[in-house]
């Protein structure tokens, strides 16, 4: 019982798919797709040289094109701000006058924070909305 060449290419594609699942290395998947393309080439009756060239061309093209795109997407994951970084740039409401002398208090993120103005000459009245520029220890720097 002879196994046809296209079946061998499919077996190769499956064999390359196993390390893809085990190691999560996408290159194995790209090689598996190259083997699947060679299987189709063998199925339509092309010679072994054409099959190997199709395998190599598809595999190299996928690695050369898809891999850099995947790496770029992996590097561009959105950064979620948390903790103090999440408070910077938000608005707060003054609950106790904020000035350079004694500072003051603002309501920021549902909590009362001590606050001081970014510019020492500024003063903010109760009820005024201010922007949080920075957090210095437990003090919100506002403007």
Structure overview:
This protein has 143 residues and is α+β, with helices and mostly antiparallel strands. It has 2 domains: 71 residues, no CATH class; 59 residues, Nucleic acid-binding proteins (OB fold (Dihydrolipoamide Acetyltransferase, E2P), Beta Barrel). It contains 4 helices and 5 strands, in the order ααααβββββ. It has a 5-stranded mixed β-barrel with strand order 1-2-3-5-4. A hairpin with a 3-residue loop joins β1 and β2. It starts with a helix and ends with a strand.
Care to give the gist of this entry?
Pfam families: NfeD (PF01957). The chain has 143 residues and is of the alpha+beta class.
Task: Please give the structural blueprint.
Blueprint: H1 5-23, H2 26-43, H3 48-75, H4 84-87, E1 91-99, E2 103-108, E3 111-117, E4 129-136, E5 139-142
Parallel strand pairs: 3-5
Antiparallel strand pairs: 1-2, 1-4, 2-3, 4-5
Keywords: Membrane, Transmembrane, Transmembrane helix
Protein name: NfeD-like C-terminal domain-containing protein
Pfam family, one: NfeD
């Amino acid at each position: 019982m002879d196994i046809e060449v296209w079946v061998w290419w499919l077996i190769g594609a499956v064999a390359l798919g196993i390390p893809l699942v085990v190691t999560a290395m996408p290159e194995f998947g790209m090689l598996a797709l190259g083997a699947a393309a060679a299987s189709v080439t063998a199925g339509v009756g092309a010679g072994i040289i054409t099959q190997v060239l199709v395998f190599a061309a598809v595999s190299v093209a996928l690695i050369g094109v898809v891999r850099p795109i995947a790496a770029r997407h992996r590097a561009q994951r959105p950064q979620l701000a948390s903790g103090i970084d999440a408070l910077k740039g938000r608005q707060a409401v003054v609950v106790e006058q904020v000035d350079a002398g004694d500072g003051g208090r603002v309501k920021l993120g549902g909590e009362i924070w001590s606050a001081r103005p970014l510019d020492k000459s500024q003063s903010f009245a109760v009820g005024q909305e201010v922007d949080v520029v920075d957090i210095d220890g437990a003090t919100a720097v506002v403007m």
